[in-house]
Amino acid sequence: MKKYQCPDCSYIYDEAVGHEHEGYEPGTRFEDLPEDFACPACFVREKEDFVPLESDSITSDCAKNKNSVVRSLKK
Ligand SMILES: [Zn+2]
Question: How far is the CA of 45 from the centre of ligand 1 (A)?
């Protein structure tokens, strides 16, 4: 299951959770949302604007990269 984030308001669509208020059952894949899906929080951003979030393992890789950036800034 993946998560997708609205670039405007930081709302996160979690496929495992869905958005029942809008009629999307838990487990609804992002790809299966209608093309006219709009952010349920701000109604500004549409499906194509959402940013896929990486999995936790990749997030920890990012943290490592951040550390190396900090190190290079100390030069
Ligand atoms: Zn939004």
Answer: 6
